[in-house]
Specification:
Length: 205
Amino acid sequence: MDVETCLKKLGYVGILNFATVDEDGAPQVRNISAIHYEGTDIYFLTARGKSFARQLYRDGRVQISGYTRFKETIRLSGQAFEVPQDEQIKWRDILYKEQPYLENVYPGESKNIDTMFVIKDYTIEYFCLSTRPITREYFAVGNAVLKPKGYIIADKCIGCGKCTRVCPQGAVNKGNPKPFVIRQNNCLQCGNCFENCPVQAIQRL
Ligand code: SF4
Ligand code: SF4
């Protein structure tokens, strides 16, 4: 998997869950299909008067997710910025051309209430449930930084092997120098090994 393929898959899914954070810190999610992919940049629009726009102006953090028919979740987390004024019309026209239904929503001059946003720095989590074991991959785009997630086995592991027996995906290998290691790309992050380790050697990142 790679960033380009993830974006292509999101494009095929078409209608994506698009989450922001409101002024109370509560999640707000809506479905969005008016998205233009330009390289790794993601352009989208909303009307300036909508709460969606206010959340983007105030906070800007967004999370977009899509689920493919191959049971792949692609989750993109990043920061959205309003497109500079001198580029607004250019990107809006491109989006309206790709998504002609928008003309029905904002006909004629009413489309001037629209404003374009772009996401350039983001991370992607790719998670596929149709492989055995499952597949998980992470990518960072632009200036985004990946935050480690999941579980690791610390040095105090006594090598009892219980984690290998309870792991639903067989994602724990014998290691060297550590007795056991978790294959992060195949880990569900379910926490079963964490709950069952007799010496609490498994740490949540
Ligand atoms: S269950 Fe804990 S102590 Fe046993 S092998 Fe796994 S990490 Fe090590
Ligand atoms: S978190 Fe779940 S999937 Fe990952 S290694 Fe532990 S038991 Fe296996």
